[in-house]
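User: Second chain of the day. Same drill as before.
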Amino acid sequence: MKEPVAVVTGGAGFIGSTLVDRLIQEGYSVVAIDDLSSGRKGNLRSAEETDESRFTFQEQDICSPETTTLIADFKPEVVFHLAAQADVRHSVADPVFDAEVNILGTLRVLEGARLSNARKVVVAASGGTLYGEPDPSFLPLKESLSPNPLSPYGASKAAMIYYLSVYHYLYGLDSTALAMANVYGPRQDPHGEAGVVAIFAGLLISEEICKIFNTGEQTRDFVYVDDVVEAFFSASQLPGLELMNIGTGVETSVNELYQTMASLVQTTASPKYEPSRSGELERSALDPTHAKNKLNWVPRTSLLDGLSSTIDWFREN
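Assistant: Same format as last time:
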């Protein structure tokens, strides 16, 4: 019997490439689509080496009309859409470009899924920007909270979720949007759109001084990439239309994060504190209860274990 086909946009990114590896292990033939603007071809080396006959890489901009044709031609059972313009500050500086990638690009992908009669689409949404900055009494945030994006990036990701609803209503296309917390782990690029874990890891291993903006008491919800990939795979088996948070529900301050990582690399160096950056959330955490109920998903990797694995990877790479 022929293997089912899965398409992963943003497949050369750190989350996307980890998902590609998992799908190949699960018996899928995988098509990774990436324009390599932030993803790295090297992230796909293990996929190519595992089974070259079941892996295809296509260097392609998701905003191009060819993306729709490409997806339709491969006739995937499932489409995982992770490609995005993911830099909040860049979205503020150039909201039109952000919308072109995150809204038009998503429509190109959804059209490909529709034309190929895909069974399911799973998309990467952003929990940190979707809900804005609600009263701290709502933490950890639930999906029942109304979207209130405060950046063009957050607005474009919210629009993507509305389009999923439209495609489900008009065309019967099942989809799940995963509103992710701060994902970290091996393969995350410490440059460009990187999260604070990757930035700290790169600097600490290089014995350079880390910068902390504001007081460092601002909090984030850090979730390990392997746990996130498990959520993507589980969501691909779920029928219907869903939005669910993928996080730990636990707040960790940037200061706590730095101290933990500094102890793992055995340094006593102090960070340098800089003024706060505009648009930065003070506190953030996502309630994963809905994902537990629907997917039987829980984050299994402790922050200490995840940080240790991440630092080990940065040391080796």
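The mean pLDDT is 95.

User: Great, on to the next one.
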